[in-house]
Amino acid sequence: MIILKIGGSILTNKDATKSEIDEKNLSRIANEIKSSLDNESKEIIIVHGAGSFGHPPAKEYKIGEPFNKEEYPQKRIGFSKTQNAVKRLNMLICDEFIKEDLPVVAIPASSFMVATNKRITEGNLDSFKRYLNKGFIPVIYGDVVLDKDLEICVISGDQIIQYLAKNLNPDKVILGTDVDGVYNKNPKIHDDAVFFDKFSSLEDLDTLEGTTNVDVTGGMVGKIKELLYLADLGIESKIINAEIENNIFKALNNDQVKGTVISRG
Ligand code: ADP
């Protein structure tokens, strides 16, 4: 089984003021996934980020921050708006996958996962297994969920990856984003950033910059933290650049692709 994450940075525009899908990247990636399955059948779970759809409402309503009882009705509407925005993104993504004859089934985190202080602590994955057994491709995404401490919170696609991998023990965890992998500092800002083929500790970073995007869930550092946790459990993952044509196809086919392997070894 392969868990494939496609970053919000790849599938949506980066301008926080409007929620727009990146049609070109989306249709290319859908086609790469289809070609890889035509090559060889395999079980795939797809996770995608919330990108410019989910982050603006989550930020506006400060979802995940503590609040007073009187503010609850407002927060709840913020939850609804965020859930609907990421659902809309998911529908556009699934539309494109279905065009490629990929048998996707959306399983939103908000419908079955529960967090405690922003960490997923409940989420029965039986339906994932059942759908996989029947040849479906489950699709899950960064979403809002109920939180036992904070009432409601946002969970990132990266945290979902971690939860799924920990519980389903996949053969491969691949994360497609808009840079080649992990550098010692943000390569979008620093020309002299040094690339890591392999990454095993946060101490290897010079600066802890989140991301270039409007990301309420942690950006690259948040991503690496989730993946280091997996590495502690002996599960390796690889971050690759999904903006480069055929990278997703190659990674799914075990072909050599530039990227950063996150492992403790
Ligand atoms: P995605 O939406 O694809 O999951 P994010 O936008 O959250 O990805 O994170 C990727 C971004 O993180 C990159 O575009 C890059 O600008 C930024 N970034 C910050 N620090 C680093 C770093 N040390 N190495 C690589 N990218 C970094």
Structure description:
By secondary structure, the chain is α/β, with parallel strands linked by helices. The protein has one domain (2-262): Carbamate kinase (3-Layer(aba) Sandwich), CATH 3.40.1160. Helices cover 37% and strands 20% of the residues. It has eight helices and twelve strands. It has helices spanning 8-11, 23-39, 51-60, 72-99, 126-133, 157-168, 219-232, 247-252; strands at residues 2-6, 44-48, 104-106, 114-116, 119-122, 137-141, 143-147, 151-155, 172-177, 198-199, 237-241, 259-262. The strands form two sheets. Strands 3-6-2-1-9-11-12-10 form an eight-stranded mixed sheet, with helices on both faces. A four-stranded mixed sheet has the order 5-4-7-8. A hairpin with a 2-residue loop joins strand 4 and strand 5. Helix 3 runs antiparallel to helix 4 (72-99) and helix 6 runs parallel beside helix 7 (219-232). The longest helix has 28 residues, at 72-99. The chain starts with a strand and ends with a strand. The structure holds adenosine-5'-diphosphate. Adenosine-5'-diphosphate binds at residues 7-10, 49, 177-179, 182-183, 185-188, 205, 209, 211-213, 215, 219-220.
